[in-house]
Structure formats: C-alpha cells, structure tokens
Sequence to fold (354 residues):
Amino acid sequence: MKIILSKNAYFFIQLAIICLLGGIVCSFILPSKFYNDAEIIVNDFHNEVGLIGSYPFTIFFYKITLLKFIPYFLVAIIQLPILYSLLYKIGVPTNFNHLTTKNFLVYIGFFLIALFICIPSKEFINFIYLCLIVFIFKDKKYSLQKSLWLSFALFVILGLFFRSYYLFVPVIAIMMYLFTFIKIANKTIKTVIFSLFIAVVMSFSYKLITGKYISESTREMHNLERLNSDEAQSMIQSPISPDSWYGETFGVFYGYVSVNIPLNAVYQLLKPQVLAFIIWQLFIFYILYLRFQKCIKNRQTYHHELWIFLFIFSYFVVQGMFEPDLGSAIRHKMGIFPLIYFAIYYDKFSIKKR
Fold:
C-alpha cells in the first residue's frame, strides 16, 4: 500500500531528520557544561536513584531502559525520533512548509529539542508526559470537564514524583481562568499580571510554613552556590534580596521577565547563543500572548484551547520563581514544547467537536 504524504507532512519529516542529524553531531561537540545533568543521570554520583524527585526518577528511568549504558549519539538516535513522532501525532499544521514567523520559530524549536535532548535529560521525560495532556484535549471522547480533571491529576502526579513546582500549575491556571470572567479592559495582560500576584501570595504562604519565601529557598539559594563558577554569568539573580515581602514580590516579577521577556539579558548580547535565546523567547512569548488573547475574547469557541494557554502561562509564572539561569530556562521550555506547539497551531488542528 502506497502512503501519500502531503507537502506539509513531507516537510515535517525532512525537518525532523535534519534536526536528528544535528542532534547526533551535537552529542559529540557540545561544551562540557551541557553534559552536567547527563553525567549526573548516567553516573548517579550520590546514589540518588529512586521514584520521587526529578534526578532520582530520571536516573531510575535511564537505568531500567538501559539508555545510560550506551553512547550519547545512540541516545540521540533513540530519543529524538520519539519526540518528533509525538509532535507529528499532535498534528502537522497547514502551510507548515511555508516560511512564516510562527513556522520559523517552531523550526528553531525543533533544533533546540535536538540540542538539549540529544543526551540523557529530564526534559525527555517531561516532554513525553506533557504530550499526554495535549492528546487528552484533542481526543473527541473526552468532555472539557473530564479533560480538565485528567490534566489536573497528571500535573499533580508529575509534581509529586518528578518536579514539585508542577503542583502550582493547576492552582494558578484555575485562578487565572476565574479572573478572565471579570469584565475589564486589557483583560489578557491583566490576567497575566494577576497570575504573578497569585504566585506572590503562594510564596507568602510558603514562608509561613517553611520560614523562607519560594524563590529565596530555590532560585537564590542555588545561585549562591554558583557565584564564582563559570555558570554564574547566566544566573537569574534579583537585584533585591528576596528575604522580605517586597524583595520576594519584586523577585517574582523579575524572574518572570527574565525567563519570558529577557530584555534584562542585553548585557550579554555579544554572546551569540544568548542573543538567539532572547530573540526566540521574545517572539514565542509575543505570539503565545496574542493567541491567548484571541482565546479569551472567543472563550465559547476556544474553551478547550484556552486551558492549554492557561497551563502554559501558569508554567511561565512558576518557571520565573524557580529558574536559576538563562541556559536552563530555554532547556526547560523544551520540556513543555508539546503545549507550546499545540498552542501556536491550535486553529490548524482537528480538535474536539464543539
């Protein structure tokens, strides 16, 4: 039986193959700092293997799959086709073979997947897991209510066993959703700002329980350990100490801007990789913001898609609280790329019957 591919599907496969080849090459030539996580995962220096926690779980995953025992270029050959196949399963948008701003940003995203997930990585697990949420929202047999309950459950499981900050995502998303019912001007930007204040309140609550604010005990503490290292150049460190209510409030907003609208990284413009990140991130954020705005204005038509945007922008808030540096910021964006990919092209895919 002869399989006939559309021009868009054919281009998608060609792009995936090119990125796969790029990922194989990258597994040989990446600078040593790219291998830090991979070396921890493969070697398990502190005997962390287990089922709870991002490193323990990832170490366990690569151990039982035997991927820790093979060369990195073979890991790339196995992992990358799986990720691109999942994106293909989500859908190939119409006009994907045409050079548009959206498509170009996604092309770069395909390459970034190859760059960051060509070696053992926590993002490989993150990527596959979040694809489940996209498939749930695309599946016609699930109502919106059932899709939401399943998605919330998946985030809770991911938060409990993998990365604890995912526990915040459904909470912030629900609060943002309720806020969108308020009749105000510039609703989208005010919804985003409101989500930051939710994060501040959550951090204050965390302070009452643990004695420290969230960003103070995560991002800032981690960065204090790296002050004199080579990685310190790309650190996200608030100019105001987060050990006070106003310092933490500023830190939450500062972190959000740093990982999503990174204009404060212009002092590193002489570094090509940083410049590329700034440009890519700014355009991705702007496009997602515009499409989020469209969903809010047409919530009755795009009520399923609206929740994907709420999850994405909630994650952006959480990432701003926890993210220690610009390098890991873009790597972690690849972990949620299935949500971003779907959000960029939601009106090009066949989704639930309304």
About this structure: The two ends are 34 Å apart (CA to CA). The CA atoms of residues 136 and 229 lie 43 Å apart. The mean pLDDT is 87.
